[in-house]
Specification:
- By secondary structure, the chain is α+β, with helices and mostly antiparallel strands.
- It has three domains: about 1-150, Zincin-like (2-Layer Sandwich), CATH 3.30.2010; about 180-305, Neutral Protease Domain 2 (Neutral Protease, domain 2); about 305-410, Sandwich (Immunoglobulin-like), CATH 2.60.40.
- The protein is about 30% helix and about 35% strand.
- The chain is built from nine helices and 19 strands.
- The protein has a five-stranded mixed β-sheet with strand order 7-8-9-11-10.
- Helix 4 packs across helix 6 (about 240-255) and helix 5 runs antiparallel to helix 6.
- The chain starts with a strand and ends with a strand.
Length: about 400
């Protein structure tokens, strides 16, 4: 190890293992020798990364692929190491890895390494881990998922995007202070959500957000005292979930272009420097990027206090005004919950939320989409449509943290 910082190092790792095994560590493989019944591997990691060394060795089956950015001089080698009987999802893992490399390249720049390794380990050995360019995933996550029937939730895409994106963010020194979960967990999980959004669309990412929300609400019940704000998070069970939901809402409120610009600026200001990154400076940048006073207020509220919402489609009436058009009348309600002194306090929501009207086979046709103003917790929408509507849905993007997403839509 070589470093002026005990927690942020470059490294050279030598592993001796059985001749019929692959030994893996972070960095680039610079030497591999076989002698008698032993095999020696030497890895050099010349990128400063947190000192969290992970090394594995097993009788792996190896699969390889390459990904190359447009106009790049060289390609990134993708290596997948797995149990010989667990190869069913390897092609999906490689596809997800390529998608993540492309996504990260567009947002933060070149991948820091010449290679990316994703390795399977037995259940119970460890949780998913990332160190340098080595991603370790237990066998019951990703490797043994049954994709013979397309799943409702694509955990492979989500997990690979989440874990591989951590490699970029391990290149900056993140201060171990309150609120660090925004940087250490929230950005990576958000990247997984965005991969799902790009591949499968809004309804699929909403399912993942709802699961994260459920985990947040469930873990929050274990806390006796006042809930921590985003910048005051420490070791709370709900910390990573809350940080992720705040970042996701920020991304939705600001829009991808503005959000990505600020995140890239933050990343560039800290890469290859000795300056420690903290969540406060990122959130300040996001606030500064908000184009309106109302949006700044929404973001400030999001970062300082916990607000969640219950949107309901209360009633829908459809009449065919003539042979060509349909009149839709729908009544909507919304309650805002503010968490204080260990309890949620509900008030009528005053503000805006996006409403969609869908039609066609399986509700695939977008007939209407706009922001609707709620006053004293109520709103009404009256539309004349050329196509018969089949569904009304509020807050479909989960821009606002949904308390009970089961009743924010009505299919008819």
């Amino acid at each position: 190890m070589v470093s002026d910082d005990a927690d942020f190092v470059i490294s050279r790792t030598k592993i001796s293992t059985a001749r019929d095994q692959f030994a893996l560590a972070s960095g680039e493989l610079v030497e591999n020798k076989q002698q008698a019944d032993r095999s020696t591997y030497i890895y050099e990691n010349n990128q400063y990364t947190p000192w969290q060394p992970h090394m594995v060795s097993a009788r792996y089956q190896r699969s390889q692929a390459y990904w190359q950015a447009e106009n790049a001089d060289s390609a990134v080698l993708i290596e997948i190491y797995h149990h010989p009987d667990h190869g069913a999802n390897v092609s999906r893992i490689i596809a997800a890895a390529k998608h993540t490399l492309q996504q990260g390249h567009q947002q933060w720049g070149d991948f820091p390494y010449q290679s990316l390794r994703i390795a399977e380990v037995p259940n119970g050995m460890t949780a998913p881990q990332v160190n340098g360019n080595l991603v370790i995933i237990p066998e019951n996550q990703t490797w043994q998922h049954d994709y013979r029937t397309p799943p409702e939730m694509d955990w492979i895409e989500f997990q690979i995007a989440r874990d591989v994106s951590r490699i970029w963010w391990q290149q900056i020194a993140i201060a171990d202070v309150r609120g660090h979960q925004v940087l250490t967990e929230g950005i990576a999980i958000l990247q997984g959500l965005r991969a799902i959004e790009q591949k499968w669309g809004e309804s699929s990412v909403a399912e993942f957000v709802d699961q994260i929300s459920d985990s947040y609400f469930r873990q929050r019940t274990t806390e006796d005292g006042q809930e921590a704000s985003i910048l005051d998070l420490e070791t709370e069970e709900y910390a990573a979930y809350k940080a992720t939901l705040a970042l996701y809402s920020s991304y939705q409120l600001l829009g991808s272009e503005t959000f990505d610009r600020q995140l890239n600026l933050f990343y560039r200001n800290h890469i290859d420097t000795n300056q420690y990154a903290n969540a406060g400076s990122l959130l300040t940048g996001l606030l500064d990027a908000a184009p309106t006073t109302n949006l700044k207020s929404n973001l400030s509220q999001l970062f300082s206090a916990t607000h969640n919402y219950d949107f309901q489609v209360e009633s829908v009436d459809i009449s065919q005004s003539n042979q060509r058009t349909y009149q839709l009348t729908t009544k909507l309600s919304a309650t805002e919950f503010i968490y204080r002194a260990g309890k949620d306090h509900g008030v009528d929501y005053q503000g805006f939320a996006k409403v969609k009207v869908l039609g066609g086979e399986q509700g695939k046709d977008l007939l209407y989409e706009n922001v609707l103003n709620f006053e004293q917790g109520k709103a009404q929408l009256i539309l004349e449509l050329a196509q018969k509507p089949t569904q009304v849905i509020i807050n479909s993007q989960r821009r606002l943290l949904e308390r009970s997403p089961t009743n924010n839509s009505l299919t008819f």
